[in-house]
Amino acid sequence: MPLIIIFLAIALLFVLVTVFKIHAFLALLITSFAVGVLNHMDALAILKSITDGLGSTMGSITLVIVFGAMLGKLLEESGAAYQITDKLVELFGLSKIQIAIMITGFLVGLPMIYNAGFLVLIPLIYAFAFSTKLPLIYLGLPLCAALSVTHGFLPPHPAPTAVAAILHANPNLTLMYGIIVAIPAIIIAGPLLSRFYKNWKLIPPANLFVPRVFKKEELPSLSASLFTALSPILLMLSGAVIQMALPAEANNNKFLKFISDPNIALFASVFIGIYLLGIRKGKKMADIMKTLADSSASVTMILLIIASGGAFKQVLADSGSAEYIKVVASGFNLSPLVLAWSVATLIRFTIGSATVSCITAAGLTAPLIVGTNVSPELMVIAAGAGSLMLSHFNDIGFWLFKEYFNTSIKQTFAVWTVMETTIGVIGLIGVMILSHLI
């Protein structure tokens, strides 16, 4: 029954948005109530789930999205994004620009959570599309694929790291095997898949990107542009590396965790941008603050849509749908690797969270590898691959992609959902091949 309710909820949401043209924020709230009622939840319990989901999602993404928008606007209006894109095009050439973006996404994705990495780099994708006249999806898909794979497969990201601990897997081996599986997954789900959408004419949302032509003397230096754009990445990466080198009980470990937190890293980067791209170029503080205020206002509705997606996810979780999926999946007679992937896939489809589905699948399947020769490191990657499958309305990443790439619901399914599912399938195939070799 819970699976039927989930399918009905997806159908209802699709009809509300596409047929009745109800805004996604309101449609998600209506659907959340409907799911609660169909699962026989009390009205007050439904309301609590929705407010809890809204609150927890807003608490986890607001600062990242707002600071990311501020940094992106500084990079755009100062011309720094164009300075960087021109240099990359010069180094790699247009024929290899997807490879440059893919490598950038992978390196950025190693220390950064998906949302933070996406928001830091999306202004560069907008600038690339404008300056090279290449399709937005053609440039954006390799970035999204790289960020998604690192988020799902590789330590030190939260889910793979937590699952490695649950399964007593070696994090270094997990990282090594994960990179082996990640490479074909990124190539197939990024550059190769993007060819199917090369004729799509998408433009960035008008409130997030305004094309401009800069004179050479107006542009900031390449070093200032790169340092500002990379500063959140450098802060997060350096914090993560130093933490790995220090014992957990070290006195300065808390400070390192603080400065390498995505919220703080992006916050600091905004001030770096204010100085290097604003004050040092002779701009008045009042004008800089107006730019930041405009950028914050531009993401208000995006925040509400993503938060309502969190509410939908929370109602699904509180209604017991995830527990039902766990019970059903535990009755399957499958290889532990396939079972970990399958359970993660079902839970991902049910509640949307890649992290929750990955960790839950690991907890459920951990006893199955005792006394077997199944690699716990490959179990981590299998669960991570399953946790990226079948993304839809209850996934924050779905709405983030839709709003920033300015796609319709149908287009978001055709690109984002297909990309995520491709990564999940290639991940499982890679795990099964490696399981016969190690």
Question: What's the structural blueprint in terms of helices and strands?
Answer:
Layout: H1 2-18, H2 24-38, H3 43-78, H4 80-92, H5 97-109, H6 114-132, H7 136-153, H8 158-166, H9 171-194, H10 222-245, H11 253-259, H12 262-278, H13 285-298, H14 300-318, H15 321-330, H16 336-351, H17 354-365, H18 376-386, H19 396-405, H20 409-435
> Count of helical segments?
20
Beta strand %: under 5%
Q: What is the number of E strands?
A: 0
**Radius of gyration using CA atoms only:** 22 Å
Q: Roughly how much helix do the residues carry, as a percent range?
A: over 70%
Question: Mean pLDDT, rounded to whole units?
Answer: 81
Overall spatial form = globular
SSE-based structural type: mainly alpha
Q: Could you give a quick summary of the protein structure above?
A:
By secondary structure, the chain is an all-alpha fold. It contains 20 helices and no strands.
Can you offer a commentary on this structure?
This protein has 438 residues and is mainly α. The chain has one domain (2-435). It has helices at 2-18, 24-38, 43-78, 80-92, 97-109, 114-132, 136-153, 158-166, 171-194, 222-245, 253-259, 262-278, 285-298, 300-318, 321-330, 336-351, 354-365, 376-386, 396-405, 409-435.
Key features of this structure:
438 residues, 76% helix, globular
